[in-house]
Amino acid sequence: MDKWIWKDKILLAIVPFFGSLALRFLSLTIRKKTMYGERFQKFRDQGQPIIGAFWHQRLLMMPFFPRPGKTGMLISQHRDGEFIARAIKFLGIDSVRGSTTRGGLSGLRGMVRYYREGGNLAITPDGPQGPKHVVQMGVIELARLTASPIFPLTYGASRKRALNNWDHFIIPTPFCRIVYLWGEPVWVPRDSKREEMEEKRLLLQDRLRQITEEADRIFRRNP
User: Fold this and answer.
1) pLDDT tens across 156-182, in order?
2) CA-CA distances (angstroms) from residue 166 to 46, 57, 76, 130?
3) From CA 158, how far away is CA 177, in angstroms rounded?
4) Domains and CATH numbers, the chain
5) Distance CA 138, CA 144 (A)
6) Global pTM value
7) Numbers of helices and strands, H then E, in the chain
């Protein structure tokens, strides 16, 4: 925090609060539905924490995904990450600082510790800088260390805008409809070798791409 100038500190005190407030208001205008929740039900019944993985492009409305309980999200150590960490705190989500790039090792350790304390984990496996819709190895290593299933998660929106950035970040518009989708879980055995971990990475990537396409297809059929 010593590196932040006074103007940054003022923004840091204001922007996350009002940003989370605006997001809550947007969420209240949106009709939501969840599909394939039965894929997760037995884990909910057993009280087992999980890892939820979703594309950075679909991050905005994920705080309103029906959460299974206490949840911590991996947030980048980049400067913008401080704003995100404070904003999601207002939405009831904890943050673990780090990434698969800068600060990756500390982030991984923090996520493992959070999981062992009974918390669910949320991660954008292609964030924060891409490439778009390409799973990085960090989430696979996390699943190996925790012996937790990775659930692919996504949503589709009936009306949305896409930013002109690296992943065409999606912003649903007020009074649209959203469908959240649970994907089939991916397991990574503790004794996995590098080749098997690469296979799991590709499997998670394929399942995330498939359910994201399915979510978008719902509204192409039923605009």
Assistant:
1) 999 999 999 999 999 999 999 999 999
2) 39, 9, 16, 7
3) 5
4) 6-221 (3.40.1130)
5) 10
6) 0.90
7) 6, 9
